[in-house]
Amino acid sequence: MASGLVGMQTMHAAWAQDAALLDDRVTQHSVADTICRPGYAETVSPPLDSIMARKDRMLAKHGIDADDGTSYALDRRVPIVLGGSPDAAANFELRPWAGYAGERRKALLTARLKRCVCAGRMTLAEAQAAIVGNWPAQYGRLAHRCDGDGEFDDGASASAERSGNDGS
């Protein structure tokens, strides 16, 4: 592995461990009781009105017309299901829904990383570093690593992406 890549992985791991992005209730020791528990994200997520108001403010800040807002998702850099803070301003960014680095694709990978963490095939810190790192370039490798049988389930992810199901 090239030394530059090691440095980038270290930087992303450090950024992923930034307390401003994380929910302190979620640790490697608490994953079974938090992110791996069905419905966890819904219990800690702010009300939809609050989320939509934040998105509107961010669209305005970035000079994006509200009519074009449906093309963007209010993304959490570290998703709730990977231990990200549900409401910290530092954890939010606008992300296009579609495309190589779009929210739909990120949500599919997030769901796979969560399954990987919950099955013990990856640590929470590794999953957090992967999702804040250059996940689009590593999508295939990460998705492959997190599939239970080691096979990339292209059919399921493709149908979920076509239906707009974001997997979170």
Summarize the structure.
The chain contains seven helices and two strands, in the order H-H-H-E-E-H-H-H-H. By secondary structure, the protein is mainly alpha-helical.
**H/I helix tally:** 7
The main pleated sheet reads as:
2 strands, antiparallel
Instruction: Please report the total strand number as a whole number.
Output: 2
Radius of gyration: 16 Å
Rounded mean pLDDT score: 81
N-to-C terminal Cα separation, in Å? Answer: 32 Å
Number of domains: 1
- Which structural class should the secondary elements be placed in? mainly alpha
Helix content: 40-55%
| Binned strand content | 5-15%
* Largest beta sheet: strand ordering: 1-2
Q: Give the overall silhouette.
A: globular
H-E string: HHHEEHHHH
Please tell me about this protein's structure.
The protein contains seven helices and two strands; from the N terminus they run αααββαααα. It has one domain (3-163). Helix 1 (3-16) crosses helix 5. It is mainly alpha-helical and 168 residues long.
Give structural attributes.
single chain, 168 residues, mainly alpha, two-stranded antiparallel ribbon, 48% helix, disordered N terminus, disordered C terminus
Fold blueprint:
Layout: H1 3-16, H2 40-44, H3 48-61, E1 72-76, E2 92-96, H4 103-118, H5 124-132, H6 135-146, H7 154-163
Antiparallel strand pairs: 1-2
Helix pairs in contact: 1-5, 4-6
